[in-house]
Amino acid sequence: MTLEDRGPGPDAVYREELLAGRFTIQTCADCGLASFPPRVFCRHCGSDALTRVEASGHGVVYSTSAVRNRPDKGGDHNVSLVDLAEGVRMLTRVDGAAPTEVPIGARVKARIVTGDVPHVVFDLVTE
Amino acid sequence: MTHHDLRGASAVVGVGLAGCGEAPGRTAMELIGAAAWNAVTDAGLKMTEIDAVFGVSAVHGMPSVTISEYLGIKPRFSDGSMIGGSSNVAHILQATMAIKAGLCSTALVCYGSNQKSASGRLISSAAEFNPYEQPYKPRFPITAYALAAARHMHQFGTTRQQLAEVAVAARAWANRNPEAYMHGPLSVDDVLNARMVCDPFGLFDCCLVTDGAGALVIVARDRAKDFPKKPVYFLGGGMAHWHRSIMQMPDITVSAASESGPRAFEMAGLEPADIDVLELYDAFTINTILFLEDLGFCPKGEGGRFVEGGRIAPGGSLPVNTNGGGLSCVHPGMYGTFILVEAVRQLRGEAGDRQVENPETALVHGNGGVLSSQVTSIFGTEATL
Questions:
Q1: Nearest residue on chain A to B248, alpha-carbon basis
Q2: What ipTM score was computed for the predicted complex, to two decimals?
């Protein structure tokens, strides 16, 4: 389906799914590896046998930074890279700690944010 | 010694800069024009003798076409491939190929920007909207490099003090370069105590935003001695890129310089130990550390410890970023041109108070995007041919 050139493509489908409350990731029926952001064929093996599965939402912080801003410009915010259990990495934001205090290696759980551009952020998992 | 067809096939016979620092009232094209005129004059040529143009710009969609028209050149060959700040470093390889193939004889490589005076911000293709990045409000390109630095610190124990050593060394070189934009003392504490921009980077971990343009004239090896200045020969080049978006970089602590470097060394028939002076694209302090590792000057993970104690500063054992770097000399959005010019000046012996003693070889490493495109070029004097 992903290689057809009419109708909603993988990008549009991803956002439609998010708006419906589902965080989905493509996985390849041939090589088993996941792709993110969505593609029209598997970037690992070239197969077009991509299927969409609901992500577990579990991840680990791979790296993190705080973008510094003056309080009158919204203050500091976190930007992190999170490795999902499915094997893909996302740029995202981690909540649950100060923007400067997100630990690399911490376990996180996905949360969908809807809006003009629906997207996924993560919360720190507390024991 | 290897005998790759492109090894020693071309030489830089002219270099020029213009408007470095602040050039209020000037357009990007006027700066490119002035740098090109300076490079062509340095080579003892007339602009009409240029028959190939390799140029990029942050503000022109067809840069080599616009630049050629402005300079009054009707090129036989031109290329404006945009791979970020490393573009002009790649153009040296492409110009050498075109010359070797007989498609042109006298190539101009150039870039310029007036972005400090025009906007005061880094202009780049990072303005492309990416729905998988923009909702998180990264401050690109800074955030991407900050993520690399944070991971390097976590994984290898690299410290902010070690990052600061890179900025301090760059400033010490800049203090010997009258053309550098930043002068004056800079200590590790100054770097650590500066306003934070994007953790773990403070203000001095980040490159300058300046105006400036640069240009180089490239000819075939057999013509290299027909010009007024000492020729600087192209010995090897290599490129590599693995990602455009930082989330797609396989291991954020290993750049594609680990492929471009070996490719360039193989063509040149040289090893890291053979290099006398290094010009590495230091858009951020972590860059210098990553590239020293990925190009083979120290093991992976050891870059932070490697730069301690002033090793890459004036008087240290390995001269790196001798013009003062993107951190303290000049950084008009894309910096590759300026490290090429500095390498040529060092190999000519024209570098004044910052001159490295009798260098025979120089390595230039260009970086583009968010640690994305990596291009390595190695140059040498006639003795290395």
A1: A89
A2: 0.96
